[in-house]
Design brief:
Elements (H helix, E strand, L loop, with lengths): L9 H10 L3 H28 L1 E5 L4 E7 L13 H10 L4 E3 L5 E3 L2 E6 L5 E6 L13 H12 L14 E7 L2 E6 L6 H4 L7 H4 L22 E8 L5 E8 L12 E7 L2 H9 L5 E3 L3 H9 L4 E5 L2 E7 L9 H9 L3 H8 L4 E3 L21 H10 L3 E2 L5 E4 L5 E3 L1 E7 L2 H17 L2 E7 L1 H9 L6 E7 L7 H4 L17 H12 L3 H18 L2 E12 L29 E5 L7
Parallel strand pairs: 2-11, 2-12, 19-20, 19-21
Antiparallel strand pairs: 1-23, 3-4, 5-6, 6-8, 7-8, 9-10, 10-11, 12-22, 13-22, 14-21, 14-22, 15-22, 16-17, 17-18
Helix pairs in contact: 9-11, 10-12, 15-16
Amino acid sequence: MSFSSGQLPLRQEIYRALSSFSLKQKLLLLFLAVIFIGSIVALAWKLNDRWLVTVAVPGGTLTEGIVGFPAHGNPLFAITDPDRDLAALVYSGLLKIGKDGLIIPDLAQSYTVSADGLSYDFKLRAGLSWQDGTPLTADDVVFTIGKIQDPAVKSPRRAAWEGVRAQKIGGLEVRFSLKKPYSAFLENATIGLLPKHLWQEIKSEAFSLSEYNIKGVGSGPYRIVAVEREPTGLPAIYRLEPFKNYAGGEPKITSLILHFYKNDETIRTAYERGEIDSFGSIPPTTAALLKKNGANVQTISLPRIFAAFFNQNDPVLSDRTVRSALSLTTDKNSLIKNALQGAGVAINGPIPPGSEGYLADRQSVYDPKAAAELLEKAGWKKGVDGIWAKTDKKNKTVRLEFNLSTAAAPELKSTAELLVAEWNQFGAKVTVSIYDLADLDQNLIRPRKFSALLFGEILGRDPDLYSFWHSSQRLAPGLNITQYANSTADKLLEDARRSGDPEIRTAKYEKFQTELAKDNPAIFLYSPYFLYILPAKVKGADFPSLIVPSERFATIADWYIAHDRVWKIFTTKQ
């Protein structure tokens, strides 16, 4: 085959054309070609990236450190942080806390509440099972509540379930009947359930001694696969894996390891040497230091309040003028800055920010001069030793002198020392006594044998203040530790507890706080933050508004470490 002039093959035509280019023209052409190809690649990458999404996939290990050792990782007994953490991971309830902090169904598929607020009907999801494969039914629900209410079991949860009747109305349905409306009842339904088939043969008196308190079987997001103990017998390491039939969906993190330590110092050392990835309830000073070293510190609000509670029966502190003067000489912002390293917010009442009934417009007043004028007007005078004193009706000299008791937690010790320094400078003679928490509870709080107490209170989502301030709760196990009594306040608390209308409850709580402020039975100081270190490798960890630290695990089924990139069309649910 032959070609005439002007009919050369295309390749030869291109070659002849290129040969005619100068070196400068060839370089320019090469440059334009590179730009063109790069643009095509970039456009393809951008389009690909636009249609790709990150999805969680099973995989990864999270090692969490916890201060203290578990003894009763059972929802009926869990009151310490180690026990609560374990119970939150292994067990689940009818309801749970969602990402937004609201209560949502968990084991329950749905629930209904009667118009009078006295009946709650729950329907369980179909196909539920315990971590040993046994079906979970309404019988387990009724059994669990019955054991909570059994006096021989001695569950700390018993008071919350008094007067409630649990009744099976179907294989997957249960009804709770109340004698009186209780606005916070749904929060009760978040308590973890026990498997009847494992616990029914254990005598009530022996519940707290069962090995199931250590090696529990629940229906929560994780199941226990191994427990390693210290030479002393204390559980030191728990190894957990996802429960495939968890009602909230199988968790993505495939290995969860819990290490338990005796104190804040040992857990900090463990973190610094890489033995653990995460830990919480971190003292503010420790958190500030670790944050400087690059730790990812989460700051989470908790409905906790700390206050200096005054015993109404103390001869000095029973004087309302004295309590008011001490309040005016308390610099709360200084306490937060120096004792909490800024990890908290000042409060002026028994309800913290973010909770129903919080009075945002009430401000702290720090005015030592006004405090002195208040005492002088009431007949108090400073003695030669600089201590305030007055003569009572029996012609006896009463000095502004008392003791402040608190627990051995670092931030409480620091707060107590700062408080005492302020009050002593003002002209009071105050000493500090530090106790182990158990000793403080048994020997001072329960018998009400203290003058002033620096302590904290944990409120629920519905800040039910009844147990803390109603006069019927002045004696243990009631929590009205100041022994406060006010008939007007009592009525407001009773009305708030019975109402199912949030607006009515809020109005009652606001009026109650106004009444309480007149009497000044306590100096409300601050609401501290929960400080939690979680590594950056963990994604999807949205923390709801926590009530107790263990609720950080409320959304753990949504946490993930391993992930992949896939086209959006493959993630669309059919």
